[in-house]
Amino acid sequence: MPNPTPEEVKGLVGATGAGSGGAPSTFARLMDSDIFASFRTQKVVMVAAFIVLLMFIGATFAPWLAPTNPFDPATVFLADASIPPRWQAGGDPRFIFGTDDQGRDLYSAILYGLRVSLIVGGLGVLLAAAIGITLGLLAGYVGGRVDAIIMRVADVQLTFPAILIALLIDGVVHALIKGVSREDSAIPVLVISIGLSFWVQYARTIRGSTLVEKNKDYVHAARLVGLPAPVIMLRHVLPNVIGPVLVILTINLGLAIITEATLSFLGVGLPATQPSLGTLISIGNKYLFSGDWWIVAFPGATLAIIVLAVNLLGDWLRDALNPKLR
Amino acid sequence: MLAFVIRRILQSVAVMVAVAFIAFLMFRFVGDPVNQMVGIDTPAEEVARLRQSLGLNDPTPVQFANFIWKAMHFDFGMSYQFRLPVTQLLAERAPATLELAFTAAGFALLVGVIMGVYCALRRDSILAKTFQAVSLVGVSLPTFLIGILLIYLFAVILGWLPSNGRGDVVKFGNWWTTGFLTKSGLRALVLPAITLGLFQMTLIMRLVRAEMMEVMRTDYIKFARARGLRTRSIHFGHALKNTLIPVITIAGLQLGSIIAFAIITETVFNWPGMGLLFLKAVQNVDIPIMAAYLMLIGLLFVTINLIVDLTYGFVDPRLRVAMRA
User: Fold this and answer.
1) Best to test chain A binding among B145, B161, B255 (most A CBs inside 10 Å)
2) From start to end of B144-225, where are the E strands?
3) DSSP letter at B172?
4) CA B149, CA B145: separation in Å to the nearest integer?
5) B25 to chain A: nearest residue by CA?
6) 3-state secondary structure labels for all residues of A231-280
7) Tens digit of pLDDT for each residue in B91-109?
8) Could you tell me if the ipTM is greater than 0.85?
9) pLDDT tens for each residue of A259-305
10) Model pTM?
11) What secondary structure letter does DSSP report for A122?
12) B321 vs B318: CA distance, rounded Å
């Protein structure tokens, strides 16, 4: 890590001093940390973080930020269909990025679509992490046959690409719950598919660190005191092995967003009435040949930018938290 | 050595049995196979007789054994959508997918190695930095978006290449069709192959670059320089040769991924291959096709992994010693 410039040192001292004599506040400690210093020295990472933040805000406040609700039939008129972006000939000042084939404002549709994509991707990686952490802890702490079974399943799953597994699970779950309409079931099914496709990496990491931790004195002590195994696993081992999960979560978020978009693009994800970015792209793809490039271009660019920004953040986090690189 | 080979083969068989079991569960319990075969007005006795004749009343282990027996004879039943044997449907579409996958792999290997070598040797040149940046973007862009981009550029705006289908194909023997022999077939292959191979290309490029930079620092390269060998023969005769072993391994392992990822590329380009068939099956809950495709891809991955592991055992003497211990 490069030495901090005088300005940075001053800034750090000032920040710590803000705690007014007592113990530095959490905020000051955060400003003082190596991670924050490495964050401030890398412009690309700062831009990526800013973009991710902007997109999260846009997605969260979509109902307030979007000029129209693209899914309210009362505000959508077919007469507005396929209007090019505002700066192009024939553009309409009401629609910055133009409209799609049904007259929906693309800017609003992207905000709502981003929301769906981030919800599905975020919940998907959280579910994957929950499954992976649980199974990894069990495999590492209990060992024996439990360990063997869990890790063999992980090995088999690792031989297949995640997207293929997600496709299969999606198909099977939809077949099992035939009575439910796709509109109601799409989001939960996608979250389950992503969760079950991405758990292996967490399980392997957690198992590895658990194997190390379980032979340490504090775990032996906890066992001697007579604490039950679940309490030891959750209260004592888990906090000590959870560190790397944050990095995997960030890196997998990009993958999960891509997986959701791919499934939606392939027509087995979110339906056109409730579009994610992938669905919007698949709708726009149909109009590419008639020259309506904007219907696919803007959702596509949004998807590419958010994934790239999340990946950059993930790479940086991995390097910043890796003690070997300090 | 023999013990290792046998153990490794047994492991592969175990994985295949596990995959077959999942396929069997799907086949048997997701959607009732009998319901798909009879009409609404079929009498109940008829349904019961069909159920008996299909062996659906046998104990589950017997049914599983039957399933495996049939699978080993490439019998996966009838597709619900097409009312045709699944094996026939897959076999008809296999040539399209295989030709696409191998072309994509060849493209990825060739261009990836060239770009990787260039990036390693001219590390600070602008072109090398551009390659690096493009590879980062290439990894972040989803396959289908790259496909759409290429279609828009080369098919819609420039109109150079077709964006749809396989072009004219020539029939070879009983069931193999090839697009390699016609002009329109070759033209149709370009965009899908680039789309499918791009991710693997960036992967190979990064790998070759890293390996090559490592090899260039080794003593035998310094010694080769000291002997006064020509730069060209040092770079390609000595350095590149030694980076190629891991590259070929990765390329082999990636071949399975390429065939699996063909699902997406085939959808974007409406390529009449197995992936498109599988996707239609997922959309229409055509379980026999899904099960058969799962088994096929499983077999492919297991075989590739097995071959790679065994070759490593034969090639690398250190592993052979470790195995004996």
Assistant:
1) B145
2) 170-172, 176-178
3) E
4) 6
5) A172
6) HHHHHHHHHHHCCCHHHHHHHHHHHHHHHHHHHHHCCCCCCCCCCCHHHH
7) 888 888 888 888 998 998 8
8) no
9) 888 888 888 888 877 888 888 888 888 787 776 777 788 888 888 88
10) 0.80
11) H
12) 5
A262 to B143: CB separation less than 8 angstroms, yes or no: yes
Is B308 part of the contact surface with chain A (CB cutoff 8 Å)?
no
Question: Are the C-beta atoms of B138 and B229 separated by less than 8 Å?
Answer: no
User: CA torsion, points B93, B95, B100, B102, in degrees to nearest 10?
Assistant: 140
3-state secondary structure of B234: helix
Candidate from A178, A281, A308 with C-beta closest to B140 = A308
List the 143-182 stretch of B: residues with Cβ below 8 A of A.
143-145, 148-149, 151-152, 156
Contacts with A300 from chain B: Cβ below 8 Å: 145, 148-149
- At B170 the three-state DSSP class reads strand
Chain A residues with beta carbon closer than 8 angstroms to that of B133: none
Q: Which of A93, A78, A98 is nearest to A293 (CA)?
A: A98
Q: Could A307 and B140 be called an inter-chain contact, meaning their C-beta atoms sit closer than 8 Å?
A: yes
The owner of tokens 């005769």 is B237
Query: Do A134 and A166 form a contact (C-beta atoms < 8 A)?
Result: no
Phi, psi of B14 (to 5 degrees): -60, -45
Distance CA B298, CA B293 (A): 8
Q: What sign results for the dihedral spanned by CA atoms B133, B136, B142, B147?
A: positive
Look-up of token digits 């569960």: B25
The minimal CB distance from A161 to the residues B148, B261, B282 is found for B261
Alpha helix segments (H runs only) across chain A = 6-17, 26-32, 34-41, 43-60, 62-65, 106-142, 144-158, 162-176, 182-197, 199-213, 217-225, 229-231, 238-241, 245-265, 277-285, 294-321
Of A156, A170, A262, the CB nearest to B142: A262
Residues 3-62 of B with CB under 8 A from A: 15, 18-19, 26, 30-31
Q: Best residue in A180, A182, A197, A266 to probe B by mutation, most B CBs within 10 Å?
A: A266
Arithmetic mean of pLDDT, B286-305 = 85
Determine, for residues A160 and B301 on separate chains, whether the beta-carbon distance falls below 8 Å: yes
Chain-chain contact of B264 with A262 (C-beta, under 8 angstroms): yes
- Three-state DSSP class for residue B78: strand
